[in-house]
Amino acid sequence: MQMLQLENEQLYNQMSSMIDEVKQIEGKIVEISRLQEIFSEKVLEQDVQIDKISDTVVGTTENIKEANEEIREAMKNNAGFRIWILFFLIVCSFSLLFLDWYNP
């Protein structure tokens, strides 16, 4: 009888320690679940931010392409303008030379 009572106490102590371990594990699982929810919220927030960044990058790329085209156009126009100025100066120079030669 004493043997059974001793064995019963040992089983009771083991079960008590197992219950404590289960409660600790349960607490850790609850904490993990809470952290998982926070992690999921942050991932969703980042998803929205990444979409905004992606849209901004696409818009910026288009703006840069348009700006490069405008710069090329401006360079072409500027080059044409320079040619006209050069032509005008040459014509004026030859006109002055001609007038100087013609009018002694």
Break the fold down into its secondary structure elements and pairings:
Elements: H1 2-102
- Please identify the structural class as seen in this structure: mainly alpha
Helix proportion range: over 70%
What is the 3D form? rod-shaped
Rounded mean pLDDT is 89
Radius of gyration: 44 Å
What percent strand?
under 5%
Q: How would you briefly describe this protein structure?
A:
The protein is mostly helical and 104 residues long. The chain has 1 helix and no strands.
Could you walk me through the main structural features you see in this protein, from its secondary elements to its overall organization?
This protein has 104 residues and is an all-alpha fold. The chain is 97% helix and 0% strand. The chain is built from one helix and no strands. It has one helix at residues 2-102. The chain is rod-shaped.
Provide the descriptors you would attach to this structure in a database record.
single chain, 1 helix, mainly alpha, 104 residues
